[in-house]
Amino acid sequence: MPKNLSIIITHHKTPELLYLCVRSVKDAVKNIDYEIIITDSEAKKENQELIKEKWPEVEFISFKKNLGYSGLVNEGIKKSKGDYILILNADIIVLDNAVEKMLDYMKSNNEVGIIGPQLIDFAGNIQDSCFKDPDIKSILARRTFLGKLKLGEKIINKFAIRDQQEKKVDWVQGSAMMVKKSAVSNIGLFDERFFMYFEDADWCRRFRRKGYGVIYLPQAKMAHYYHRSSKKWGALLDILFNRYTRTHIISAIKYFWKYRHAKQI
């Protein structure tokens, strides 16, 4: 049976965060006909049992292997029945009225394809969650010692959009975003060549190229347990020993290669 909203929660080995995420949806989302679909990589049966015991109506799709973020989102979209889709990582806590505000805005603006909320940490500090299209300078500034220099700080400040007003942006972070199902049918699913990282920047860029707006909506707020797995020790050590850093670099290369002949929108 069709739903107004499908909420897809991607999960990989953080069952405590997953439980809190689902509970936040149940507590915060009111007066909307919605379904919850959890897509779980390298799943353990006890994780599903933990959720199903409390919320038996939640659909749980388990995978023995690690599909990566793009793969998990795509599997959720394929199963979704809603006209609109809210994509959440398991480390998101949905706050009161955030989903309603995003859904109302999307229904009132036909040209909008993607909406990202304002992400805050658990102390209430605002996190960077919307950006200009990635370029080599911004990647170097964010991932090396250059970011500590004045020039690097200037590049980062230009790359991360920190306005507190709703506005069109190049891309919003994939940890929390709402999309129109009809627009996805036109644009296509996440590009699974991006196992992790840059899949959100790529998707937003594809939406914009088809004429859909990508909107940052700060009046809709969600809390994000942000753990930057791709940065632990520093640039060189991370490249050598941190697999998330290597994945990030590989995704960056794929992204720049994909758009090597593209003109800016």
List keywords for this structure.
two-stranded antiparallel ribbon; alpha/beta; 9-stranded mixed β-sheet; 265 residues; 11 strands; Spore Coat Polysaccharide Biosynthesis Protein SpsA, Chain A
Description:
The structure is a single chain. By secondary structure, the chain is an alpha/beta fold. The protein has one domain: Alpha-Beta Complex (Spore Coat Polysaccharide Biosynthesis Protein SpsA, Chain A). Helices cover 40% and strands 24% of the residues. The chain contains ten helices and eleven strands. Strands 1, 2, 3, 4, 5, 6, 8, 10 and 11 form a nine-stranded mixed sheet that branches. A two-stranded antiparallel ribbon has the order 7-9. Helix 1 links the parallel strand 1 and strand 2. Helix 5 crosses helix 6 and helix 9 crosses helix 10. The longest helix has 16 residues. About 5% of the residues have low confidence.
